[in-house]
Amino acid sequence: METNISALIQELFTPLRIFSIIICYKYQYTVRLSQVVVHLIFSAYKISAGKTAQIHKALPTIWPQLLAIFSSDLISPRPPRFEYLLFYYNGILCQFISICHYVCCTTKVMKEHWRTHHQWFAQDFLQPSYCTNTAPSISQLLQRYTQVVICQRLYRQRPGLHYFAVANPEESDSDESEPVRTTIDQLFDQLEEQYQGVFQSSDCTVETLELNEATPWLRRIRWSQYLANQYPEILHSLIETPETYSPDPLWKIHQAMISISYTAQMIAKHCGYLIRIEIVCTEIDQSPYTPLQVYIDMETISAHLRSWQQIISFFARTQYPAELSYSVYPHYRFNHRQYKTWQYLWSLATRSPSPDPYKSDEDCTTPADPVKPSLFYFQPLERICLDFCIELLNQRIGADEYKCALVCALAVLDRSRTGWYTADSFSPILSKIIKLSRFFVLGQTLWLDPHTEQIVQHFRRERTSTDFDLDSPLDNPEYQYLYKDKEYQSPSSPAISSSPNSSSPAPLPFSQYLHSRTDKTFQKWVQLIIKSFIIRGTNSPFQWILDLHTYGIKISFSTTQPGHIGWIDPDRLLYKQLSFTTGELRSWVHSLVHTIQNLLSSDFLFFSTTTDIPPVLWASLADDPSEEKAGWSFLQDSRTKWPVRGDQWLINRLRSDQTLQQQFLDLDYRCFRTNTIKRYLAQVTLFREKLAILIYLCGGQPARIPELLSVRYRNTANAHRNIFIENGQMVFATRYYKDFYINNDPKIIHRYLPRTIGTFLIYYLWLVLSLVERFDILVSSADDRSTTTRTVLLWRPDPLSQRSWTPDRLREIIQRESRLGFYRQIINIV
CB-based contacts of 362: which residues, under 8 Å, 6+ apart? Predict the structure, then answer.
């Protein structure tokens, strides 16, 4: 495939190496690298879109020095002709002054050039009446100050739309100059090739850090020394994701890692508070106040797991160097336990399903249904893969951390094709590794408990007959309980007879060993592993990761971040690849306001004008933020005198208006017109999407998507509402924020809406929502309806389709709306 693309590129384009640009054979002009796709699609080449994308991707690899754009202003005067560019024989060269080399093809353009660059005007050449000499005509001036030349140009569109004079292609060079020119070209081509060879060879490998480079992050990690002289392309290929549904054993291991993460997280979710506190300890005597939080959903598990999968990919591709197509790769060593576990893992992944080497035939921990296993069970490949991940953590770092296999793999992860990750970008990767490692430890230690089956039954809320989790911390016969009731007997052991010489009852042991426990329990295994290689002071890879993560956060907080916002002209804002003025932003917002107003008045409230709609009396709106009654909102405040009863107003309109009855009711069949109702609900979805963008743009500092989607307009039994009325303004106060699950401490942030947007929101909640809920019940099945908790959300699932509001959906909405109303620029900053 690559050979075919390369051959096709050679047929379509030719490089102009002196300027590092390419020329189209067919159309005889230069094509910018960014416009290759457009050029091939809209020309007469008839090349498919997929092959066009492959050509655009392969061009920089075939000609590495290819420039994105080259300005024809840099071309020297009268260069040698370029045979693949189109010739223009009507070129006009400006000779108004000797240093001007401007070329055009019409006299009108030349006169404009004289006026703008040489301050020439026709009246300057007019002579007074007493002079006998006549003024020169325009044709005489053009003949005097111009020269007809043959010219070429690189581009057909701006920027770069300039002509330049070249030698006449029909003039033949002398016999003596041609060999000389050929020799000169060959010498300079050889010089360029030698330079490019040395430059590319020195630039494509990892370089060590110089003493005068102020990069504290790289000095701390020392990865540039470990990966010195390695090729970034090779490093990136070592951690690439294997092809989906391929026979590659690595793909099976990747799929097993996803199942492990989900199962381990479910185990952590059902563990008690004390175990989840124990697993997050980073110091020996530390007492954290926030337990391990379990909030990752299935959609984001794959993204969080990618770092661990890349670590496994690195080991899988470097354990068998004979199969690699290159001999230069980072070296490391497994210890004995790691190597043995890896051999088990790879052998099971390469062969057909076989019995788990970690369990005996009598062990019945696998569910009866092999197709759909329980959430708390691991399959054979998953258990061995989990063991290998734990063994990577179960290592002691000695004199050098790069004797540790996990640290070596992390060095490869930090190197991308273009350079090193910064402390700001690599710290989140370390956070994901730390969190999933804790999940892995809980998943591993659960199946080391002798009563795992009973624990799993307890997680399932099933009854268990064994007191597997009722140990006493002090279970010593010397610690005894003196009882006074002679009839009291221990339910688990006989009473001890009293001494014949004693007048008081004999002491009874506080408890008896109901079972002889020779193995450690779940809790003890957790404590043992935590003290062995999870907390600081153990010289383990996990301690190294914790320290590096802490240092990365410190560097991120103490280092000045690069700015992305810039301003040019009076009010033009630059953000990455975006460029717009404040006037254009206001125009976009006004177009959204106009669209929402039309939807609200004509489609929802069934009025052609806004004068007939019941007004919102902002001055008389009252609210009690302290009211915590479930189901209560500002609409129920008795101090507010609403002009109409909102929950029945639209229903009454449908009852009384014959036009609306014909639109929504089929009186012949005595039923509602479901198609009309579905169109109505579809318009409601569009209204809410545009309203969400308006609130995001105009509601003060833009909220993060989870904050915006957590807004409730009514109280629930578990949470307080977020929408309030304050001094004649609509305000939504969010409590959820990015670090809520880490700190377990909500932060209330108030955001005030402009009066127009607040009016839209009140009309929706006051008049429209009650009819929408009734229509949704009418056309939706009982299984698709939202629960009570989700119903009170402002951004509840869409009526009819029940599509949920997610961060990805809100990004799609803002991209779509910005493309429609923002001059085809796509905003993706939420």
Answer: none
